[in-house]
Amino acid sequence: MTTDSVLPRRRVPGPEAPHDDVPLPKSREHRREHRRSAWRGAAAGLHGVGAVTAVLLALAAIGAVISEPVLIPSLAASAGVLHSAPTLPMAQPRSVVVAHLLGAAAGYAALALWQSNPWSAALAGGLTFAATTLARTPHSPACATAVVVVLQTPVPGRFVPLLLGATVVLVIGGFAASRVRRGAARYPVRWW
């Protein structure tokens, strides 16, 4: 047995070697464009951070004014989805609003059938995913809304209207943020 049969052959650079894998020196203009692109990316990131923070502060302020908890964890996740990927189907207004309402409904259904515990909360999250899939309103943070309902057992007559209002605030915030920064992706792609 020879070493040629055991060891893989290495490519040896030389005149016969293909030239397509040899990196070319970058031009000054290419480096300049790369820096511009990096600055645009940083500006977009800062814009997104500012937009998410502003809409979450607005929800917290509304809650403080009416002395009700309006900002819940699933809405913070929705704000992140909405501002980081505004063109995805899961970020569109119909998905945001309807999915959270379906999540609340699934949470209250689980409470009606079982006790408030982690097992029921997990089942409510799965039920929410099924309902949003069937309704063609994909929005994964809504699964967390179902979990919040099961574990916190909020009064439906107060919680559901606040949830509806909060999702509308998120959508309006996404709309406004997409109009502020020039070159930003327009939100929404479709309203319903």
Compact summary:
The protein contains seven helices and no strands. The chain has 192 residues and is mostly helical.
Q: If you had to describe this structure to a student in words, what would you say it looks like?
A:
With 192 residues, the chain is mostly helical. It is built from 7 helices and no strands. Helices cover 68% and strands 0% of the residues. Helix 3 packs antiparallel against helix 6 (141-152) and helix 4 (93-113) packs across helix 5 (118-134). It starts with a helix and ends in a 12-residue tail after the last helix. The model has no long low-confidence stretch (mean pLDDT 82).
Q: Could you spell the SSE succession in H and E letters?
A: HHHHHHH
* Strand residue content: under 5%
Distance between the termini: 70 Å
Number of E strands: 0
The gross shape turns out to be elongated
Radius of gyration, taken over Cα atoms and rounded to an integer in Å = 25 Å
Largest sheet properties: none
The residue-averaged pLDDT reads 82
In percent, how helical is the residue content?
55-70%
Number of helices: 7
Return the structural class. Answer: mainly alpha
> Which stretches are poorly predicted, pLDDT < 50 over at least 5 residues?
none
